[in-house]
Amino acid sequence: MKKLLIKVLLLSALFANAQAVVYVYVEDGVELHIDEVTLYSGSPMQELSKDGDLSVLTLSGYVDKNDQSKLYATPNFKLLLATVKNKNLIKVSGEKGLLKVTLSEDNFTDDSEEAWELTSERFYEKCTQCHPAKVVEEHTMLEWEGLYGSMKEFAKPTKEDTTYILRFLRGFAKDGIVKEVE
Amino acid sequence: MSISRRKFLQGSAIASVAVGTSTATATELFSEVKRIPHASHFGAFYADVQDGKIVGIVPHESDKRPGSFTQALVDRNYSNSRIKYPYVRKSYLEGKADNNEFRGNDEFVRVSWDKALELVAKQIKATPKENIYNGSYSGWSHPGRLNSCPTLGGKFFNVVKKGAVGTSGEYSNGAAGPTNPEIMGDMEVYSLQTSHEEMLANTEVYVMWGADLFKTNKIDYGVANRKNDEYFLKYKKSGMKFISIDPIKTETAKMFDAECIYIRPNTDVAFMLGMMNYLYTSKKYDKDFIAKYTDGFDKFLPYLLGKSDGIPKTVEWAEKITEVPAAKIKELADLFVSKRTFIAGNWAMQRAHHGEQADWGIITLASMIGQVGLPGGGFGFSMHYSGGGQASAGKTGPSGFSQGRNKVKVSIPASRISETLLNPGRKIDFKGHKMTLPKIDMMYIGGANIVGHHPDTNELLKALKTLKTFVVQEPWWTPTAKMADIVLPATTTLERDDIGMGASYSGDYVYAMRKVVETPYEAKDDYEIYSLLAKKFGSKKYKKFTGKKSKMEHLKEFYSKSDAAKLKSFDEFWESGFVKFEIPKEAYKYVRHSAFRANPIKNPLKTSSGKIQIFSNKFASFKYEEFKGHVTWFEPAEYLGSKEVKDYPLHMVSPHPTYRLHSQLDNTWITNLYKVKGREPVRINPSDAKKFGIKNGDLVEVYNERGKILAGAVVTKDIRSGVIAIEEGAWYSPENISEVGSRCNSGHCNILTSSRPTSQMAQATTANTTLVAIKKAQGVIGANQAYSMPKTRKI
Question: Closest Cα partner for B303 from B614, B607, B613, B612?
């Protein structure tokens, strides 16, 4: 049975404890717009409390000191977890940042595979028409950006394709946050 | 589309392309001639069909220099080498315990489709996915999206077995492919090139470093348009100076009246280092470019100057290795930094021992010249490929099948197939980590000719005998099909509907590849074969594989996802045969790396520093003997400077063929244009011919420790002394099929090439690192059987 796991090392870096991790779920696209916050599909969160249909959740990640309106999953600032219009929404402490959001249960899932399904499908659909897929976790995010650039002249992806595919590649890269296990 | 007989005669007279396949009959005068659009790697065309036979080929408007290639497709369709029925090798069918020993030397028994598919399915079911090698490699058999064998093969195994062992990397760019992204943040070998318009307007010196632009641009990974030939006429009149660094005086060098530097094969990196050393010590290199756009020059410098290894890479040092005079090396370096200079690299140079260094050397040299990102300057590794230099329409073409997810994470490096089959469980270095070669019991190849493209054929033949089952899906009895246990006859591209796009870089046409004729045999479309096989795994798998859609429904879906669908309905497209995209004006102004040059902070390369990595910490950390953190000269295992020349005094290069696409079209009349006494030509310098007692037109034996082949001598000054050239792709044909290492009667060069890898890094092919000897062939020589059917019989 296929499972997607958020990498253990990363979890300990992002969260104080690794319990009750859920993932941003976007039904169509990779961005979920909630008031002043944009969340990105597959981003891991911890559920703090639940009140009926609504849950309070936190996202923990890295913040670029030059732009504190973005929260990233990794210290290379390549995989976005969230962006905010009001940068005060992200509580910054050193290189880390914490964002608290309230979401309805339609907007998140405890099934990581479901959370990454759209981007994953787009990658396999678009990038395996001429050659088999490379093993994604063999390359870093930076390497994937280069490889994707090399291939796009042939694949002619749309802007939407690029958004989906790079989200997937960064997430599953060697230095990404998701790992596929049997 | 149908046309009148009168119109057909007019059309064929204008195009002079009528291909008669039968004598005229009375009914021919009255039967309709249908004009059907199709497209191929050799170009797009209309086939004129009368009474179910192709009677003419008329080039499509996109083919700017129609030639013999597309004409030969007709001959190939009706070739005696067609596989007409499903076959199973006799001793395999009988289940003899040692049947694999007879592989390649056995009768084939005609069986029903159901029997053949049942046998294949049974073996797939019985073999763990980790022990099945899906060897349907690359996509060169035809440009169609529906019947693409590598895609279908991947999809099939992912659906029915959740995967199989695949191929890592490629033969074409096996060394540069994994190296260049670390240096340039891009593979570079397939990337959009600076437009011809910018080249023509700005380039003063055009260096063809092994690149044979005219020859290799005849074909295309998509549908060829040969539009580059129109540009080549402009280049010739442009006044720019052409320099060819190549042991061969190529057709392109002749066309452009290029100054030819007849370098020793495999010594190009020493040549580059000599120039770099000179530019540095004479202070003529571009210091500002190095400082602003590159990273690690300071770590490369001790090696360049000989401070780290005691060998300064001077022009005198380079002369000894390359046999290019030191004064000429200096002269060229001076020229390159004083004029707007473009270096067109090639791919053959990295298909050699330590091939990882080739592109890195050009990139480092170009950085010191300092013109990367300027119009008409810098370097490019794809000007010779698929219409490189043509402006891009930037449109999305028809989609294709997704292969889906492969659960088997092990892939065999492309040139390591024989090593894998012969040494399962062996650990090898590969791209900075260790990999274990898998145990392969079953191999399935569709639409690819591994016996053609894999180095050291005799080693491969031995390796193939270790398999328990070998399945080949093919339209023709290729040398690979003759080695199979189960042979599944596929239709040719002319016998089925498909959809394609071209050219690879311009991307300005979508083509309807409509079925031209019915297959006269029991052949089935590749898509249908995989579908029927999937059915053997149950209705769920069948539905998943086919998506519950017909072939035409798939084609319509592929088309609907392209930008072409915004211009024509599918029905209009299918009837007219194509959709043409306009190329935006700004596309003609494209200059590769110009954004990086304009602002390297805003537009960094996808490298660790954002700049060109003259030194790579990542590569240095691998601590490999034959691959360091900067470009390095390593002496090849075989070259004209090595001691082996005592026994094997000639360096054999095996360039891309002039009249084929790899091994495609070797079974057609087109071979009459160039073969010598029915064998592949070997070009040899007059001084060498005299030394070895060979005359033009002689049949000769070319040999080394790995094998021997017959070839036809072409004595010509167009090749450097000490070097011979045999183009790759001739179909292998052993003189005695029961003898191991039998002489090839056809001139298949890979009998002589080595399977030695480039290095621990890329583990890529080194076909161009080959020493050989030559002698006039003696005695009675039988006919070349390369294109004959093997012995077959009915049950």
Answer: B614
- Cα separation, B176 vs B359, in Å, equals 7
Contacts of range B244-247, beta carbons closer than 8 Å, 24 or more positions apart: B244/B208, B245/B207, B245/B208, B245/B209, B245/B210, B245/B271, B246/B208, B246/B209, B246/B210, B246/B212, B247/B651, B247/B653, B247/B719, B247/B720, B247/B723, B247/B725
Query: Measured between beta carbons, which residues in chain A are less than 8 angstroms from residue B434?
Result: none
Backbone angles phi, psi at B228, to 5 degrees: -60, -30
Cβ-defined contact of B402 to A132 (cutoff 8 Å): no
Choose the catalytic residue: B137, B171, B206, B317: B137
Confidence at residue B17, expressed as pLDDT on a 0 to 100 scale = 37
pLDDT of residue A157: 87
How far apart CA B264 and CA B170 sit, in angstroms, is 26
Is-catalytic flag, B137? yes
pLDDT of A113 above 70: yes
Across chain B, mean pLDDT equals: 95
Helices (H), B305-388: 315-322, 326-338, 356-369
Judged against a pLDDT cut of 70, whether residue B243 lies above it is answered with yes
CA B351 vs. chain centroid, Å, equals 11
- Each residue of B719-777: pLDDT tens digit? 999 999 999 999 999 999 999 899 999 999 999 999 999 999 999 999 999 999 999 99
Phi-psi region of B285 (alpha: psi -120 to 50; beta: other; left: phi over 0): beta
Mean predicted confidence (pLDDT) in B126-141: 93
Q: Band the pLDDT of A1: cuts 50, 70, 90.
A: very low
How many other C-beta atoms are found inside a 10 Å radius of the C-beta of residue A149?
17
Nearest-angstrom CA–CA distance, B461 and A157: 41
Q: Which of A131, A146, A156 sits opposite B606 (nearest CB)?
A: A146
Q: B60: helix, coil or strand?
A: coil
**Residue in A90, A81, A103, A89 with CA at minimum distance from that of residue A34:** A103
Task: Find residue A109's DSSP bridge partners.
Answer: A23
Q: How many whole angstroms separate alpha carbon B99 and alpha carbon B88?
A: 12
Q: In the structure, what pLDDT confidence band is assigned to residue A17 with cuts at 50, 70 and 90?
A: low
Q: To 10 degrees, the CA torsion angle through B312, B315, B321, B324?
A: 180
Check B85, B92, B140, B262 and give the catalytic one. Answer: B140
Beta bridge partners of B524: B490
CA neighbor of B460 nearest in space, from B488, B435, B440: B440
Assigned token pair, B107: 């009768």
Coil, helix or strand at residue B177: helix
The pairing of strands B53-59 and B341-344 is unpaired
Contact call for A131 and B191, based on CB within 8 A: no
CA distance B644 to B663: 30
Cβ atoms of residues B725 and B719 within 8 Å: yes
Which of A156, A166, A172, A179 has the most B C-beta neighbours within 10 Å, making it the best mutation to test the interface with B?
A156
What amino acid occupies position A43? S
Q: What's phi and psi for A81, nearest 5 deg?
A: -100, -40
**What's the 3-state SS for B671-682?**
HHHCCECCECEE
Listed by start position, the domains of chain A span 3-109, 114-181
Work out the percent of chain A whose per-residue pLDDT is above 90: 65
ipTM of the complex: 0.84
CB contact at 8 A, B58 and B19: no
Question: Could you give all domains of chain B from N- to C-terminal order, each with its CATH number?
Answer: 2-77 (no CATH), 176-389+589-613 (3.40.228.10), 643-776 (2.40.40.20)
State how far the Cα of B575 lies from the Cα of B584, in Å rounded to an integer: 26
Peptide bond into B47 cis (omega under 30): no
